[in-house]
Amino acid sequence: SFPYTVGEVVEMGRGPKLGTNDQDLVENAMQRLGVAEMRNRLYRTLSIGEQARVSMARILAQDTQLMLLDEPTAVLDIGQQEKLMRIVRSLVDEGRTVIAVFHDLNVAMSFADRVILLQNGRQIAAGTPRETLTAERLTAIYEHKIDVIRVNDDTGPVVIPGPRNN
């Protein structure tokens, strides 16, 4: 069992860098991720999506210049995905570096500055999402028809699977 509260889990992010402003950083991280109201709940009682948000708050509380994220949006609903990625985008805009792994190509298309496309552990392409995530390239990698369509001028292209060949 994991007998820690949400607040304690987020505070664990300060472990490597204990200092005088720890509580401010922890509180700020919990507020940004919308988990401050859960601070006294046991972490193990949260939904998987809530746990993911708490884990991200713990990462934010570390206050590092480099963040490595593995599928940070995988278990979040679309609203929470957008909220989290806007927070991540703001960190990049503040001058921090974020390296993230995504299987959801639409998240990468919408938020990444640069992408590296891998297949079987090998780099296939690198560049901006629009340059790299092309229908032709994705179709070849996934061995399934992939379409990349433009929805409107305000959003980036959207990646969708093509028709199924039963």
Account of the 3D structure:
The N and C termini lie far apart (45 Å). The strands form three sheets. Strands 1-2 form a two-stranded parallel sheet. Strands 3-4 form a two-stranded antiparallel sheet. The protein contains seven helices and six strands, in the order αααβαβαββααββ. The chain is an alpha+beta fold. The model has no long low-confidence stretch (mean pLDDT 92). 41% of the residues lie in helices and 19% in strands.
Largest β-sheet summary:
2 strands, parallel
Distance between the ends? 45 Å
Form type: elongated
Number of strands: 6
pLDDT < 50 stretches = none
- Tell me what portion of residues adopts beta-strand conformation: 15-25%
- Compute the number of helices: 7
Q: Specify Rg, calculated over alpha carbons.
A: 18 Å
Assembly type: single chain
Strand-and-helix sequence, N→C? HHHEHEHEEHHEE
In what order do the strands lie side by side in the largest sheet?
1-2
Mean pLDDT: 92
Find the structural class using helix and strand composition: alpha+beta
Helix content: 40-55%
